[in-house]
Write a structure and sequence with these properties.
This protein is of the alpha+beta class. The chain has one domain. 18% of the residues lie in helices and 27% in strands. It has two helices and four strands. The strands form two sheets. The chain has a two-stranded antiparallel ribbon. A hairpin with a 4-residue loop joins strand 3 and strand 4.
C-alpha cells in the first residue's frame, strides 16, 4: 500500500514509523481544536509535496533532533484510560 504512495523512498525502518502514525487511534490528552485545522504542504520527498489538512496547537512539548537520521520528533501526550 505505501509503496504506491512513495515509490522507492521507503526503507523497512520508515515503514514502521509511518504505520505507527497511521494506525494511532487514541485520544490526545489535550485535543486539537478543529478550528485550528489548516491546509498545509506535506512533503512526500525533496521534490514532491501534497496539500493536506494539518492539526495545529500551540504549547510546550518535548522535542528532539536526530542528525544521524535527519529526523525530528515531538512528544504529544495522549489520554491513557484505566
Amino acid at each position: 500500500m505505501l509503496d504506491g504512495f512513495l515509490p522507492g523512498e521507503l526503507t523497512s525502518f520508515t515503514r514502521i514509523l509511518l504505520l505507527d502514525g497511521v494506525y494511532f487511534r487514541g485520544n490526545w490528552a489535550l485535543p486539537f481544536p478543529v478550528k485550528n485545522t489548516r491546509k498545509s504542504s506535506f512533503r512526500l520527498s525533496a521534490k514532491k509535496s501534497l496539500e493536506v489538512d494539518m492539526m495545529n496547537r500551540a504549547g510546550k512539548f518535548l522535542y528532539a533532533e536526530f542528525p544521524s537520521l535527519e529526523a525530528q520528533a515531538v512528544a504529544i501526550p495522549y489520554h491513557v484510560s484505566g
